[in-house]
Structures are given as C-alpha cells and as structure tokens.
Amino acid sequence: MESVKAVRGMRDLLPEELERWQSFEEKARQLLARYGYQEIRTPVVEEKGLFERSVGEQTDIVTKEMYTFLDRKGRKLALRPEGTASVVRAYLEANYFQKRKISRFWYLGPMFRYDRPQKGRYRQFYQLGVEVFGGQDPFFDVEVMALMFYLVNSSGVTDLTIHLNHLGCAQCQHNYLGVLQKFVRPRAGFLCCDCQRRLASNTLRIFDCKNERCAEVLEEAPLPGNYLCQVCQDRYEKVHTGLKALGLSVFEDKRLVRGLDYYTGTVFEAMTGRETNAVAAGGRYDTLTMALGGPAIPAVGFAIGLDRLMALCSETSSKLPVIRAIFLGEEARKRGFLLLEELRREGLRVETDYEERPLKNHLQTASREKVVWCLILGENELNREQFVIKNMETRRQYEISFNGAGQKVKELVC
Ligand code: ATP
Ligand code: MG
C-alpha cells in the first residue's frame, strides 16, 4: 500500500528543528514583553469576507492564494492567509478602543496560502507579528521597526536592512494614482495579464509584480514618494531620522509598495544579505479599522516569516544535556524510578527505556544515539545509597550519593 505523505507545500517541523524555533520564541517573548506587547491568539478559520475587506479583493492573496470552503451551514470561510485582519477584527470585537488609548499585541501562528512551493515558500507557514493600535505618531512606526530588527537579531541573524517607503495618506494616494494611471495606460500592452487587470482596480500593485517586463515598464514611472503632502513628507522624515538615530541599517526603496491593500503611509520590508525574499514586512494601516466596520484608529504592524528566519540562522540552542538512566535489577528499577523524579524536580533532563538488559548493551545504545551522560544504578550502588554518572566521551565515572544528588549532578553535567 502506498504510504500517506504530507500535503504538497506543507511540512512537519520535527523536534530537532523545533529546538531552534523554541529557543528563538523564548527570546522573542521576553523582548516583546519588555516593549509592552501582549500576546493575542485568534482562530485559524475566519469569514472569507474578512480578508476580502482587508487584504483586498483584487490582491493575489485573495484572488489566487486563499484556502476557502463552505461549512455545513453554507458559511463562506477561509484559513487565514495572514494575521493582521484577524487581530483588527478581535480588537474591534473586544472594544479595546474604548478601554485603552494604545493597544499593543503580538501573535504567532500558522498562516495558509496557495503559493507555489519552493525554498522559503510553503502553503502552511508561520508568522510572528505585532500590531499597535491608537498611535499616529511616527515614533510608533520607529518602535515597531526597531522591535522587528531586534527580534530578527535575537535569532542570530544580524545582516538585516530595513527597506523603507511611504505610500502617503488617502489624499496623496488619490493624487498619485491619477498620475500613475496616466503614465501606465499607454504602455498597458507591455504588462502581464495580472497587471493589465490591476491597472483598473489596483494600479499601485504593478510595482509589486515579480515579472521583469512589468518592472521595465515602470522604470521611468512617477513614484509615490514624490507625490506626498507636507504632513506625509514630515512623517516620513521623522520615521527615517528615528531609525537612523537608533543606528539601524535603512535603505530608501522608492518602489516598495507591498502586496496587501490596507497599507497607508509607512511601508517596510526586512531584507538579509543572503536572500532575495524578505524575511519580514509591514507598515501603517490607518483606515483598516474603518474598512472592518469600526471607528478610525491609526495602526502599524509587521509580520516576520519564521520559516524563512529559521532557515537563515544556524545557531544551535543550548538545551539541557540528556542523561540516560540505566537500571540493573528490579530493585534498582523501583528506586531508580523515584530517583529520576527527584532529579527532574531539580531541573535536570533524565530519561530511560526501563529495559532489563546487560549494561554493555545499554552503553552501546547510548553511544550510538550520541548521549553524553549515563546514570547507572545497579544492586551494588543501591546498597550504598548511591549511583554512578558516566561521561561517555571521556569515559570518566563519578559516584554520587542519593542525598543531595540533584545539585551534585547539575554541577557535573550543566
Ligand atoms: P512574498 O513577496 O515573498 O510573497 P509577501 O509580501 O506575500 O511575501 P507578507 O504577506 O508581507 O509576504 O508576509 C510577511 C512575511 O511572511 C514575508 O516577508 C515572508 O517572510 C513570510 N511569508 C509570506 N508568504 C510565505 C510563504 N508562502 N512561505 C513562507 N513564508 C512566507
Ligand atoms: Mg506572497
């Protein structure tokens, strides 16, 4: 019979790889707490309409990449393709805007997109994201970008550059789109099919097209940054200056627009020296709460693609060393079982296969599995109220008495 395989574009994160993820997640949680961000967990399934109204009906994500289905009552649902829309929905639904001036959230979880599977591109992938609601000041933009920078840094990836642009407020965007359409229309025949469709409904996104011909058409195109009103210009300047003051590496990318419709003002992507794909991205979205039926609340956020980040960092975690316990004889097994509980309570990592077999055989297994420390408890040791700890690499042995064992073992192996 043919064996069952994981679905195309989806994969298992096995324990060996997860150790790296967990070590990053621990550091991330601490960092996020220090910046005053609180975790939020939203459902993986949402109404399809949520993403149509936020990410945008004409975007690639909504038109081509979303996993949608009807439930038994015929409701149109979707697996979330990104996190921001859900966090905004939850923020509005729980009335946070009435309770606090500023709300800072972070989330971590799987997202689903019918992308073409390849390196760094999966159909189930993980994002760690943050969203701040209620703040219009450019310092909020700087704060989230700094946080993104330091989060990525904490994974061990340090060659990060923030690509920065400003799309302007609704008025700037309106003025600019007229100019852009005037420029692109006579050249429409050179654009790919997707961009010809975008021309009418979503002109700005042509900048986000990965097709080289479309990029050529736009080489001489007017850029959003040159059509900003004074307020937007000042905001952009403050964001740029703030990032520089922190000493972060910034590249002004006048063609950066992002593939989601909800951005207004600042947009950014985090690039590393080694990869052409962004490892994180985000921006300001001051009109999204209104698009989802709430009051006008300014907001800014980003998401880090964890699959891409974890592929970049080779850092191995400093996990507790494994101690393999070997019991020889039934009495030793009974006492040993309790001993292991004591050691675990002291914070040590101990495990055993509970099997009755010759010591030599146990030690061979431990060597093969590259276990460094073995704990050996036989009848002789039991009679003397002690056990042996053996280092498999140096072959040295240490006798340890039951009394205060945890502390002594810790000094030895940690
Ligand atoms: P791309 O242009 O690479 O498709 P995107 O603009 O669609 O990215 P965003 O929606 O901004 O991506 O998501 C933020 C981050 O999530 C990306 O920078 C990336 O690290 C990660 N990401 C997005 N799509 C995928 C995917 N299919 N597989 C793995 N990571 C992804
Ligand atoms: Mg994409």
Quick synopsis:
This protein has 414 residues and is an alpha+beta fold.
If you had to describe this structure to a student in words, what would you say it looks like?
This protein is an alpha+beta fold and 414 residues long. The chain has 2 domains: 15-168 and 228-312, 2-Layer Sandwich (BirA Bifunctional Protein, domain 2), CATH 3.30.930.10; 322-413, Rossmann fold, CATH 3.40.50.800. It is built from 16 helices and 16 strands. It has helices spanning 15-34, 48-56, 60-65, 84-93, 96-99, 138-154, 170-184, 193-201, 212-217, 230-245, 288-291, 306-312, 330-345, 359-368, 379-383, 405-413; strands spanning 38-39, 45-47, 68-70, 76-79, 103-112, 124-133, 160-166, 250-252, 266-272, 280-284, 299-305, 322-327, 349-351, 373-377, 386-391, 397-401. The strands form 3 sheets. The protein has an 8-stranded mixed β-sheet with strand order 1-5-6-11-10-9-7-8. Strands 13-12-14-15-16 form a 5-stranded mixed β-sheet, with helices on both faces. It has a 3-stranded antiparallel β-sheet with strand order 2-4-3. The longest helix has 20 residues, at 15-34. The chain is elongated. The mean pLDDT is 95. The structure holds adenosine-5'-triphosphate and magnesium ion (MG). Adenosine-5'-triphosphate (ATP) binds next to β6, β10, β11 and α12.
Tags for this model:
414 residues; alpha+beta; BirA Bifunctional Protein, domain 2; Rossmann fold; 2 domains; five-stranded mixed β-sheet; 39% helix; elongated; binds adenosine-5'-triphosphate; binds magnesium ion
